[in-house]
Every structure is written in C-alpha cells, then in structure tokens.
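Title: Request for sanity check on Carbon-monoxide dehydrogenase medium subunit prediction

Description:
We are preparing a figure and want to confirm that the structure record we downloaded matches what your pipeline produces today. Could someone re-run it with the sequence below and paste the raw structure tokens into this thread? We only need the token string, no images.
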Amino acid sequence: MYAFDFEQPKTIAEAVAALADDEAQPLSGGQTLIPTLKQRLAMPSKLVSLTAIPEMKGVCMNGNTLCIGGATPHAVVAAEASAYPALAALASNIGDPAVRNRGTIGGSIANNDPAACYPSAALASGATIVTNSREIAADDYFQGLFQTALEEGEIVTEVRFPVPQAANYQKFVQPASRFALVGVFVAKYADGVRVAVTGASNDGVFRWTEAEAALSANFSPSALDGLSVSADGMIGDLHGTPEYRAHLIGVMTKRAVAAAS
C-alpha cells in the first residue's frame, strides 16, 4: 500500500465536501477498491470513508417500498430486509461472512461490477438509486461495464426497491470468487414481470425483454420454452464460453420463476 490521506465524515454534506478534491475517492465497503489500490491500478491521494454516516445506514419500509441506506452492509440487508425475501436471500449469499459484513449495497451499486448481484436486483425491481443530489431510475442508472450514471463526486445514499408480488434470484456461483457466473433476478409486479441478468454480458447487467413479455403473459417456467439468448456479447473466459453463459441464462431464469411461483 502507498501513503494517502483518510477522512471519515459524519454527514452526507461533509462527505460531498471532502470529495470535491479532484484526487479524492469514496470508500464504502472497500471490497473492490482496496485490492485495486494494492495493485496500483488506482492511486487516489485521499480516501473518504462513507461508513460512519448514520443517515446512509439502515433498512426500512415506506409504504410498499423497501429503502436501504447506501452504507448498509450486505449482512444487515440479509437480516433486516424480510419484507423483500428474494433480496434478503440474495444478500445472504454474497461472498463470505467477511465480505457480507464489510461490503455495502451502495458500494456494489456504484461499482457496477459485471458479475455483482445487487445490480440485477435493482434493475429487475425497477429500483430508484438515490444520490446526494438526485434520484435515478435503475433503467437509466446502469450504463455498461463498470459504468453508471453517477457524476464526479456523486455518491449513492439510498436504494429504493418497490416490493413485488413474487420474486426470486438464482445464481450460478463461480466457486473461487463467489461472484455470479450467471445470475438471474425475476420480479413479478401487477403491471408485468421484469427479468435482469448479471455475470453474463460484456456490457454488464441487462434486462431480458423477450422473457419479460412471455412471463407477463404466463408466469410459469413453461412460458420460456423455445426462448434463448444470443451468445453474441456474452463473456467468455476460463470459467465458461459465451455459449455456455447464454445457455445458463435460460436455465437460471426457469429456476427463478419456478421458485418464485
């Protein structure tokens, strides 16, 4: 590790002010950032921790919407998001206990790793990502591999999930990292079904619109018979070919629908 300044603000306003420095980098759980610093892939001169800001922590219900503070660890989401069982189950299977107690939902959403779990939940739920300055619909927020709508110095303060009628997340785990080789989140609402896929595409999380249309008409695994995802643009690596990942999308979606039903 190299020398850098460290600040731990107590309010969102203090955090935003600290991040006004061009060389400052926000630090949430640090599950991605710290290894990046160790490898010198990034070398900010100042880290601004978001973990001591009370207004960015906690889980609560507001009507039929589950609100989770951006600095809330995965373990807390797993324990306290009982109003949205599929989301709580997703959080309980992220990484290992150390990761779940340090990593945060805001850090995951801000990083938008192509194999992270939370982006699929946010996109499938039609969630709203709240920052220090605005509210962003999930459909507008995720913009590609490690790319989001966040602007310089903007931080995720809260994520709001409309609770669906039924939902489930199925993850085909890459054993070494515990990331999703392919993960599919299915959420059924009164106005239709949303299906989001993580771990598979070179462009990051995406919605499988053909499956959404079929499931909105008939919410059962059989509705997906004959549907498939093209392997074009899928990730290919030592863990699986693009064709393998495309096949897994169909398999995991059927499993998610069966479990949600």
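Thanks, this matches our download. Residues 129 and 159 are 5 Å apart (CA to CA).
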